[in-house]
Amino acid sequence: MSVGEVDLLVGITCHSSANAMRQTARTIESSLQQNFVRQRAAIISVDGGVVEDGDTAGSSGALPLDGQQENKAPQHGLSALRTIHRINAGFASEPSQGIALRTILASADLLRARACAVVSPATSTFTPDWIANLLRPAFHDSFDFVAPLYTRHKFHGLLARNLLYPMSLSLIHI
């Protein structure tokens, strides 16, 4: 609540690798600095004591997005005109995906965010353009929902392809 209202909120769902969380946070920050210079933004990390790569014990939970992290200069000489807040919603153990999503969406509601994106550090092709492409339609064009479109292996996404897609398609025709 001390952050105040924000225009954009990007949530990072739980992941056990500290390096993956850090890299994801840097990519998000870079995208916000390049594409949303004037907007008030926040990044929220929902984790359950991420583990330093090579360690066996969990850390304090504030590892990926702690305020002590050095603020790297943005690429191409661009800089955000507003502060990008980093919020860590730490749990004692790794929360389920449902709890992580609810935490991010509740934060977006409390902070009155105009656009919210949820990303996973497990995504291998994550770039700053991804964040901009997810946030821009919701923020500028008032879209209610934006989802990425990407190709995957034929056996991945069986539930979405065989159950959720036909069900959502039938809702459109009602």
Task: Please provide a brief summary of the model.
It contains 4 helices and 4 strands; from the N terminus they run βαββαβαα. By secondary structure, the protein is an alpha/beta fold. Strands 3-2-1-4 form a 4-stranded parallel β-sheet, with helices on both faces.
Question: Which stretches are low in confidence, meaning pLDDT under 50 for 5 or more residues running?
Answer: 55-78
Number of helices: 4
Distance between the termini: 40 Å
Radius of gyration: 17 Å
- From N to C, what is the helix and strand string? EHEEHEHH
Read across the widest sheet, the strand sequence of neighbours is 3-2-1-4
Overall residue-averaged pLDDT value: 77
Tell me the total number of β-strands: 4
Q: Which structural category do the helix and sheet elements fall into?
A: alpha/beta
Helix content: 25-40%
Portion in beta strands: 5-15%
Q: What best-fitting shape do the alpha-carbon axes yield?
A: globular
Biggest sheet features:
4 strands, parallel
What does this structure look like?
- This protein has 174 residues and is an alpha/beta fold.
- It is built from four helices and four strands, in the order E-H-E-E-H-E-H-H.
- The chain has a four-stranded parallel sheet, with helices on both faces.
- Strand 1 (8-12), helix 1 (18-35) and strand 2 (41-47) form a beta-alpha-beta unit.
- Helix 1 (18-35) packs across helix 3.
- The longest helix is centred in the N-terminal third of the chain and has 18 residues, at 18-35.
